[in-house]
Structure formats: C-alpha cells, structure tokens
Amino acid sequence: MVKLRLKRCGRKQRVIYRIVAIDVRSRREGRDLRKVGFYDPIKNQTYLNVPAILYFLERGAQPTGTVHDISKRAEVFKELRVNQTKSN
C-alpha cells in the first residue's frame, strides 16, 4: 500500500518536509517512490505537484492526516472530484 506522507529534511531547528509517495512499510526517511511537493512550516509555504498527487490518489494512495490537511487547503480534492466525474 502507498501513502502520501511527510519526509523530514533540513537542519536542526530549521525543518522542511518533503511530501512523498512512499510504501507503508518504509521508515520516515526511507526510500520514496516519488517526491510530490514540500511543506515549510516556519514560512508556512507549500508547493504541490498536483498532477502527481492526483495520479497516486486515483490509484488508491492514502494521505496521512497532515498531508490531507495541506492538500485540502490547496483544494486538491476538488480537482480529484472533477477528474472522477469526467472519467465516468
């Protein structure tokens, strides 16, 4: 099973998270399948590769709670619904 979750990067006291698609059994800093964005909690900045996120969500990937909140703020799930109605 694949999850969309945060991977810690940066240095001490200056953390930045990558949003990655990763196998559930991998550890937090483990090997990821694909990088799909980043999140900087200090500057409150995010960058999301929306087509890549939609690709994984359509194939059953589950976002963690934090990634779900970040994606919801960026309105990724609205685009997911639009894509699903077009395909049906």
Description of the molecule:
α1 packs across α3. The chain has a single domain, classed as 2-Layer Sandwich (S16 Ribosomal Protein, Chain: A), CATH 3.30.1320.10. The relative contact order is 0.21. A 5-stranded mixed beta sheet has the order 4-3-2-1-5. It is of the alpha+beta class and 88 residues long. The model has no long low-confidence stretch (mean pLDDT 88).
Quick summary:
The chain is of the alpha+beta class. A five-stranded mixed β-sheet has the order 4-3-2-1-5. It contains three helices and five strands.
Q: How many angstroms separate the termini? A: 25 Å
Q: What is the radius of gyration? A: 13 Å
Number of domains: 1
Mean pLDDT: 88
Q: Describe the biggest sheet? A: 5 strands, mixed
SSE order, as H and E? EEEEHEHH
Q: Pairing-aware structural class of the strands and helices?
A: alpha+beta
Strand order of the largest sheet: 4-3-2-1-5
CATH superfamily: Ribosomal protein S16
Provide the CATH architecture: 2-Layer Sandwich
CATH class: Alpha Beta
How many helices in DSSP terms? 3
Strand content: 35-45%
Helix content: 25-40%
Low-confidence stretches: none
Q: Which fold name fills CATH's third level, the topology?
A: S16 Ribosomal Protein, Chain: A
Keywords: Chloroplast, Plastid, Ribonucleoprotein, Ribosomal protein
Main location: plastid
GO molecular function, one term: structural constituent of ribosome
Pfam families: Ribosomal_S16 (PF00886)
